[in-house]
Specification:
- The chain is 35% helix and 24% strand.
- It has 208 residues and is α/β, with parallel strands linked by helices.
- The chain has a domain of 143 residues: Rossmann fold (3-Layer(aba) Sandwich), CATH 3.40.50.300.
- A six-stranded mixed β-sheet has the order 6-7-8-3-9-10, sandwiched between helices. Strands 2-1-4-5 form a four-stranded antiparallel β-sheet, with helices on one face.
- A hairpin with a 2-residue loop joins strand 9 and strand 10.
- The chain is globular and about 50 Å long.
- The two termini are 20 Å apart.
- The structure holds adenosine-5'-triphosphate.
Length: 208
């Protein structure tokens, strides 16, 4: 699904040759500041490599229709921003901003259930806890039905159990819906437990 060849981004990341397969779960491991988030951002062209070639579905990512790319490759960042207002408004705004209409098969209540939120869609999103906000952000991503989900490690403000619960939900979602999942984690245990393939990034280099 992605092929990277001789990719360089500033002095932060240097990738010689790597392929990420469709419908697989790939975990990106490595120590803090090593370039993991930078790697994810290259995959939806949020940032552009200074050198080298990144191919997505056989086409150079820079030539791929940017609107399609934004819809197909969606990133769940470390600290997703929750919009002010209700949960329902969060879903509606997501649809409005991305130009996506909710899939006929998905409704907002089902989405909340999928991420184990027991709130009502008319409840305020501001009062949710950190873990609940992360799950709402995940539900917003599910609403978009991306082909590829880029999951950055949830911020350290989440406890281990909540973090693993969220990762479990994302993995289940990806498997049930045949999606490609690429996730950053600091935890070798999580990587081993969930991933088909593990990539280790240290100081901007892939070491394993
Ligand atoms: N656009 C940028 N310009 C300059 N430096 C940057 C840019 N983006 C990230 N960096 C720096 O590059 C390094 C790698 O950042 P990155 O966020 O990719 O690391 P990471 O492995 O995801 O770290 P963490 O595990 O702490 O989230 C850091 O030192 C960061 O400060």
């Amino acid at each position: 699904m992605f092929k990277l060849k001789d990719v360089k981004f500033k002095n932060i990341l240097n990738v010689e040759d790597i392929e990420l397969e469709e419908k697989m779960i790939t975990a990106i491991l490595g120590s803090s500041g090593g370039g993991k988030t930078t790697f994810l951002k290259l995959l939806n062209n949020m940032i552009t490599a200074d050198q080298g070639i990144i191919k997505y579905k056989g086409e150079e990512i820079e030539n791929y229709d940017p609107v399609k790319l934004r819809r197909e490759v969606v990133m769940l960042p470390q600290d997703p921003k929750i919009f002010k207002g209700t949960i329902k408004e969060n879903f509606e705004l997501t649809e409005e901003i991305t130009g996506n209409k909710a899939s006929k098969n998905l409704n907002y209540n089902d989405l909340l259930k999928k991420v184990s939120l027991t709130q009502n869609i008319d409840d305020s999103a501001d009062n949710l806890s950190g873990g609940e906000k992360q799950r709402l952000a995940l539900a917003r991503v599910m609403l978009l039905e991306p082909k590829v989900l880029l999951l950055d490690e949830p911020s350290s403000s989440l406890d281990k159990i909540t973090e693993e619960k969220i990762i479990n939900m994302v993995v289940d979602y990806a498997k049930e819906n045949n999606r490609t999942l690429i996730m950053v984690t600091h935890s070798p245990e999580i990587a081993k437990k969930f991933a088909d393939k593990i990539i280790n990034i240290e100081n901007g280099e892939i070491v394993d």
